[in-house]
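Example for tutorial group B:
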């Protein structure tokens, strides 16, 4: 029976990975999507906006103000969402945005938005912003953004029609949109967890207070009255308008610290917690939470109230923005230190440091590894050609790949003995061989440290099955999955963990050159941890995979005799 499980896993893993490798040949097959990629095709939800930047759109530096840009982005995205939904839509959230370029007066801003995927009542809209110099014809990418819009109809709950992606790019966006939605919905909890677990050394006590600017000096409070031009035809305030007001107060707070004109570099996720309408008063508050060497974090919070009920304030939104101050050569200048207020101020100061670390982790992963962290696409057994990984309602799978300078058979042997895994994977604290079922199948008892706020360590009972290639071109496979054993029942000492299906594939790419893929289907218990990594909010996966590479390199000559049999 164990043999069957092993074979089943092997087939599963092999089809997942082989379908990934055969993707290239599929794109030469002259199929539907290749036609869709060609000229003449336009996504039916695509909306474009082009705006000439005039002096009235600029900030104190003579560049397009980010607030104005956010209004245009929100409008374009909303029109795309409404084109698909066929009814009014509101902004639910806008993911993190990193601005690569500023835009000058006289240039043109080109914005393109399209719906990547529709869920039940919500849609993910992808937005691309580029700037164009009319005189030189040069173009620059300014930023990408992802917004979620929710469709609203008066009486019935909306059930949106599905999007059918056609081009390769649309298919990719469609598939990752599901993962991004999952991450968005747990975003607040993920950040809370990370903040709780992020050990940040602060030097508040040791700093020379006389050279610090009290954070209090940067505090801003401002009120806005929502008028009809700020709202849609149903009277709901435009999300873009609120973001623009938030950017305005954040810029004032940042300027009060540096006494110069700061530039906004990044915005962390906006989540519109509740609606506001024409007639609402919006109170916007901002303060510099922390100043680092060359950048500062400003936090903004927005509350709404009706005229007659000032004490009943609704929390509409909070956001964190990163500013820098650029000199004449566009180099970031040194910033003064900040002295936070005791209590909330010191808490926000520490949280801003933790957020900065999280942002850097994420940027690192996104910038250098994004293509190597393929996310899930829908599993379609009839079409194994485009499959990357497996996804259904409950499970998220991920897959990492690297090329190592080690022979494939050697890498296979080194990683198939789970007892050596603690040498490179800190999630494996101890491994005991429980039963050697046959030459290629073994059961292990694994313990691992407590994860994500749990106090108890975890343990697993894992069946490891390894298979050599049947044909040339087939990979070596190691498949792992949890099994139950009467001799190793759950004990009070450990939380019993489960791995549904994980493992490695090894492809010989050349002499002493192997492509190693790691595949894992996460269970709900570790989902948060996995999405944190997939989102790039943590670089732990990457670090572990690099440690695996080092382990293979360090031990590449260990197993020479046993290789003769492979
Ligand atoms: N990011 C992305 N989507 C989110 C989300 C978030 N943070 N929170 C909820 N959603 C999605 C849900 O996934 C769900 O999508 P689905 O129907 O496709 O499954 C949809 O919103 C509705 O979720 P539900 O739980 O029924 O509603 P809710 O009580 O969480 O309300 C909003 C969600 C967005 C409708 C509500 O918060 C709201 O009205 N916000 C203000 C919107 C607005 O007016 N914006 C303009 C500026 S004020
Ligand atoms: P938190 O206090 O946990 O950071 P909030 O949503 O209350 O979360 O606030 C978000 C950010 O808005 C804060 O980090 C802070 O920078 C800013 N902020 C909140 N309240 C005020 C206030 N009273 N005055 C100035 N800025 C504020």
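The residue assignment follows.
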């Amino acid at each position: 029976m164990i043999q069957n499980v092993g074979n089943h896993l092997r087939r599963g893993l092999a089809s997942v990975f082989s379908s990934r490798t055969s993707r290239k040949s599929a794109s030469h097959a002259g199929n539907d999507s290749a036609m869709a990629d060609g000229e003449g095709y336009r996504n039916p939800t695509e909306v474009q906006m082009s705006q000439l930047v005039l002096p009235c759109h600029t900030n104190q530096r003579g560049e397009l103000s980010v607030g104005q840009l956010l209004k245009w982005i929100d409008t374009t995205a909303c029109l795309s969402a409404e084109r698909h939904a066929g009814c009014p839509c509101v902004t639910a959230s806008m993911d993190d945005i990193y601005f690569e370029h500023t835009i000058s007066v006289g240039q043109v801003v080109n914005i393109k938005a399209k719906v990547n995927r529709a869920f039940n009542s919500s849609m993910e809209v992808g937005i691309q912003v580029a700037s164009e110099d009319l005189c030189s014809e040069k173009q620059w990418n300014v930023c990408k953004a992802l917004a979620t819009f929710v469709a609203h109809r008066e009486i019935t709950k909306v059930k949106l029609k599905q999007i059918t992606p056609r081009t390769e790019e649309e298919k990719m966006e469609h598939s990752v949109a599901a993962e991004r939605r999952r991450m968005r919905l747990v975003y607040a909890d993920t950040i809370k967890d990370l903040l709780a677990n992020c050990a940040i050394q602060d030097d508040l006590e040791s700093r020379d207070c006389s050279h610090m600017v009290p954070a209090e000096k940067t505090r801003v409070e401002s009120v806005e009255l929502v008028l009809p031009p700020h709202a849609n035809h149903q009277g709901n305030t435009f999300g873009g308008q609120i973001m623009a007001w938030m950017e305005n107060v954040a810029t004032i707070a940042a300027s009060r610290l540096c006494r110069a004109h700061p530039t906004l570099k990044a915005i962390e996720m906006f989540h519109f917690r509740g609606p506001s309408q024409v007639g609402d008063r919006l109170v916007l508050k901002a303060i510099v939470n922390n100043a680092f060497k060359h950048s500062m974090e400003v936090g903004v919070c927005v509350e709404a109230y009706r005229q007659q009920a000032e004490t009943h304030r609704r929390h509409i939104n909070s956001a964190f923005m990163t500013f820098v101050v650029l000199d004449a050569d566009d180099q970031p200048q040194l910033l003064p230190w900040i002295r936070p207020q005791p209590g909330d101020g010191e808490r926000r100061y520490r949280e801003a440091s933790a957020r900065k670390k999280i942002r850097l982790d994420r940027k690192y992963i996104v910038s250098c590894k994004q293509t190597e962290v393929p996310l899930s696409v829908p599993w379609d057994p009839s079409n194994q050609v485009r499959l990357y990984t497996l996804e259904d309602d409950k499970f998220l799978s991920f897959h990492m790949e690297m090329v190592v300078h080690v022979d494939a058979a050697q890498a296979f042997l080194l990683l198939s003995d789970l007892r050596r895994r603690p040498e490179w994977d800190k999630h494996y604290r101890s491994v005991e061989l429980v039963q050697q079922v046959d030459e290629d199948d073994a059961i292990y008892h694994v313990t691992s440290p407590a994860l994500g706020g749990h106090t108890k360590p975890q343990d697993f009972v894992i069946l490891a099955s390894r298979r050599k290639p049947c044909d040339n071109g087939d990979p070596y496979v190691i498949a792992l999955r949890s099994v139950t054993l009467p001799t190793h029942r759950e004990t009070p000492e450990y939380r019993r963990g489960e791995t549904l299906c994980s493992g490695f594939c090894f492809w010989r790419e050349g002499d002493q050159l192997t492509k190693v893929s790691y595949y894992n289907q996460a269970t709900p218990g570790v989902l948060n941890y996995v999405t944190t990594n997939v989102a790039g909010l943590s670089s732990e996966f990457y670090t572990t995979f690099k440690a695996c590479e080092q382990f293979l390199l360090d031990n590449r000559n260990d197993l020479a005799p046993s290789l003769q049999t492979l």
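The chain has twelve helices and 22 strands. Compare this with the pattern of hydrophobic and polar residues in the output above.
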